[in-house]
Amino acid sequence: MLAHLPILQVILPLMAAPSCLLIRKSTLVWLFTLAVSFAALVVSVLLLQQVYAVGPIRYQLGGWDAPWGIEYRIDLLNAWVLFIVTALSTVVLTTAHTSIQRELEANRQTVFYTLYLLCFAGLLGIVATGDAFNVFVFLEISSLSTYALIALGKDRRALWAAYQYLIMGTIGATFILIGIGFLYMMTGTLNMADLAGRIPSLSESTTVLAAFAFIFVGICLKLALFPLHLWLPNAYSCAPSIVTAFLAATATKVALYLLLRFTFTVFGVDFSLSHLPLDILLISLGLVGVFAASTVAIYQTNIKRMFAFSSVAQVGYMVVGIGIGTVTALQATLLHLFNHALMKGGLFLALAGLVYQLGGCRIEHFRGLGRSMPWTMAAIVVGGLSLIGMPLTVGFVSKWYLISAAIEQQFWGVAVLVLLGSLLAVAYIWKLVEAAYFQAPADDTRAEAPLGILLPAWLLIAANIYFGIDTRLPVEVTAAASQFLLGDAAQ
Amino acid sequence: MLLTSHYNYWVVIALMMIGLYMVIAQGNLVKKIIGLNIFQTSVFIFYISVGKVDGGHAPILTEGESLYSNPLPHVLILTAIVVGIATTALALALTIRIKRAYGSIEERDIQAAEELQERASSQMYARTPARKEQ
């Protein structure tokens, strides 16, 4: 049983997804989905423990040896990302039943859980697999279900957002497919570890360069790195609240994992960061993304959309870490991956509570909310502080690592710009605080969000504070993971 | 020489550019989907071309043959074709629902409707508190 953990991680939700259609009752499906997600969480914790204790796990699908068969290879990096995805998914799912009751028609509720599990399985598959083509297949499984999940939104704009995302996402995935084709052409293998061994001798080849360019652009589209982020704000703001929370906490993280996996493991640090001027490209795109997206966020009146733009900005910080490319910087990226999942998960769940009570989350809905929904509003404020990077929250930890990495490398400008970027976050969080605490409520009939949403939201917000004070677990794992990533490349 | 011996790759490039251009330039949602399909098809042809080995036979074990074309890219692309069909089906389904919701499948009309809706909702919210204060 323990030997099969890597495949169980993926196959469990994949098999559970169609089973959902057999269970008709909405509550039962919810409990079933929650159980599956929790089982996946247990598997990922076991994997993480095992990898931390003994090192990378290799699993051959169907007993076919790599590089002929498909290999699942779990090292610290993907074990960490698997843990983040499953943990966040489980917390988000606990609220699903309450939130979905309000936001979806009864006949669509069971379908929702099927799509959710498919998307979940796809994301886990991308992270677990060690085969480049397998990545594409799982990417499409998760993307197709994401398009459908977004289209479930109540407003007709959700359809248009889903369509736009479908076009952009398909172009991105096809780019990745082209890149993998080029790699196969040059190396004759699809196994990532095998590719990593063969690419260094081919690093002068223009075909390998083209492969890298296609894969890089494709992943950046999925990652919503500025300026390829245009699909994200619409998709996040129109999707049902639960979907937004799930996607914000997991989907971009998985895309970032792919970027790390391809730049560091498959192509290698020497190729990506030294041979190509990718470091400058990533740092500048990341910083421009931080400023552009944060500035746009300030002017948004739809708060879901505002936080969506803020997500684009946060992706910018993570990418800056990859661009700097030292152990500390990578650690900052991996920490922010976890921390951002906690922040955005908590914030979007709090917004889900808001939508549940008020039917929307425009800035006008926030008037006087400090009095009528104190707990929800407090969650949003604490989450916002974490987003800004206040000490004692997780946001501070990752920004601290990022800035010290920049200073270590004497990139003073980068350090200053990261700090200034955080100030922009103050501006848009303040907008909410002002509306909620300094303006009179439009009516007094509002009540607090239901506990089914409020408790999970607070669980994530509390995690923001807990891991901001007791940083041992994330710091230890990410330090080992980033050393592993860079050490892997040095061999 | 390069032009004639590798003509299939030129076809791939041509189709890819045509497809991508259609996706970007066309305002009609169905035409965008057609463009996306052409774009994906070019990648299919690319993969199939990659599998060809000069002088190689069809990859079926036969007496007296030692050189075979590589069947793996063909198998891979079968998967990608299935994915492509699923994408097209989903895109068309979305288009039908967009047509029902907006009454049009022209990008321009949909964007105009969006802006109108956005302006209407922000005006509605702008008026509500004013009434309260009176």
Oligomer: heterodimer
Considering DSSP H and I runs of 4 or more, what fraction of the residues of chain A is helical? over 70%
Using the coordinates above, name the CATH class of chain B.
Answer: Mainly Alpha
Shape of chain B: elongated
Uncertain segments of chain B:
129-134
**Average pLDDT of chain B, to the nearest integer?**
85
- Measured between the Cα atoms of the first and last residue of chain B, the distance is 83 Å
Order of helices and strands of chain B: HHHHH
**Which two chains have the most extensive interface, and how many residues on each?**
A-B, 31 and 36 residues
| DSSP helical segment count of chain A | 20
What is the helix content of chain B?
over 70%
In CATH terms, what is the fold-level topology of chain B?
Helix Hairpins
Largest sheet of chain A: 2 strands, antiparallel
Strand order of the largest sheet of chain A: 1-2
Average pLDDT confidence of chain A is 88
Uncertain stretches of 5 or more adjacent residues of chain A: none
| Rg for CA atoms of chain A | 21 Å
Structural class of chain B: mainly alpha
Report the count of strand segments of chain B: 0
Task: Describe the overall structure.
The complex is a heterodimer of chains A (491) and B (134). Chain A is mainly α. Chain A contains 20 helices and 2 strands. Chain B is mainly alpha-helical and 134 residues long. Chain B has a single domain, classed as Helix Hairpins (Orthogonal Bundle). Chain B is built from 5 helices and no strands. The interface between A and B is medium-sized, with 31 and 36 residues.
